[in-house]
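Data deposition worksheet. Section B asks for the primary sequence of the deposited chain exactly as it was used as input, without tags or linkers unless they were present during the calculation. Section C holds the resulting structure in token form. Section D is free text for depositor observations; keep each observation to a single sentence. Incomplete worksheets are returned to the depositor.
Section A, Depositor: J.P.
Section B:
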Amino acid sequence: MIQYLQRALLVLIILSTGSTVYLYNYSAFHRCAFPLQADTHDPAPFRLLALGDPQLEGDSSLPNPDDALFPSIVNLWQDLAEPASIAQRLQVTQQSLANLLASDLPRILQSYRKRLDLLGNDYYLAHIYRTLHRNLDPTHVTVLGDLLGSQWVSDEEFQSRGWRYWQRAFQDGLRVDDEISGGIQIGNLGQDDTWKSRIINVAGNHDVGYAGDMNKERIQRFEKIFGKTNWETRFRLGRDSETNITADPPELRIVVLNSLNLDTPAVDPDLQRDTYGFINNIIVASRPVEDETTGTILLTHLPLHKVEGICVDRPFFDFYDEDEGSGVKEQNHLSYNAGKGILEGIYGMSGNPQAPHAGLGRNGIILTGHDHEGCDVYHHLPYHPDPDSRAWSAERWATSTSRLDKTIPGIREITVRSMMGEFGGNAGLLSAWFDYHSQRWRFEYSTCSLGVQHVWWAIHVLDLVTIGLASLAALGNFYSAGA
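Section C:
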């Protein structure tokens, strides 16, 4: 019998060791890697780890801590204090015990299960971030909105989830300082290693609300804990004396945009004006549109407009009632006009052959969140004999033929699949480098998934069981030897 138990323990140890090695190196087993530079096959100088919609839930679903732990027992003592016969007291006691078994105990067990689930989810998200950060060596990290699970929580609960975000899910990550996000900072790419630890947080609807319920208080509490909602920073490459023939060094722009109040009606017009003012400043501060040495990476939460069938989420808008302000209550995408404003404003893509750079606009890429399933599309402005009839369209990137037509403006938008366990613990890996031959920035993207959260749970439970049985076996051998 002992021999069978020892063999079973040996099997557990082998399974536990193997699965743990896999779990903490899953990126290697899945062959995850940032795309390499196409010409040299060297690592790209800019490697962005993009994570979508972690949505940390909180204690709002747990019992009120001010409530009694066992209400049925409390009620029993109160009922027994009332004058009554022995038969009535027995009946009250039986009813209270029945309530204890049928209501109180299940509620308490559910409460502890929920607490354990929240704790495990925090460390599941942390495992994704830490493993990929350690194994893949990104130069920058972004979380594309919906950091938390609800914009309706109290300030105290918001701070609690913020603490869990920084101390558990993204431990050792750093908030981008206001000194950096407060104005346009220009640095040399790769010079400041602190960017590897900074988390570029994008505001999502579950963080600050949609246009119909976004207010200054929600923006302020988000920015206090996670960083500003609208800002830009730039990175320049050093000159290459042999191949760089440009007057100015190549520049990569990172634009963080709160797109949640671009559409109307907005409950706070001042906040909406701030966002549009930021976009106008982005346009004014840009290099000339014909300067191809600049690449612009836009990080925002809401995906641009697409017709139904391109992505999982279809176009959808819902609005508050008139007595509630009539503002935007929910939306899956930006409206067509809001998305057009980004494409033709920030990226300067007019399609007018008489415009600077023949209306082709600026080079870049757009990363968004919100659609948990993820999507990868190419926005383009097809030719039409009547210029006023030209309209933006989107095709799936993998099957797009329009992206091969260099005579019309277009840009890639990647909606990063959620990192939540339900969606496989996904992460996006974006590489950017400057191609000195074409004098343009190039962008390539890949993904890496851990798998559903049950895998993480199962392996850690297996580890605990193995450690427990191994400890018991060691104790047994120790006492047997002593005897």
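Section D:
Residues 86-136 form the longest helix (51 residues).
The longest strand covers residues 426-435.
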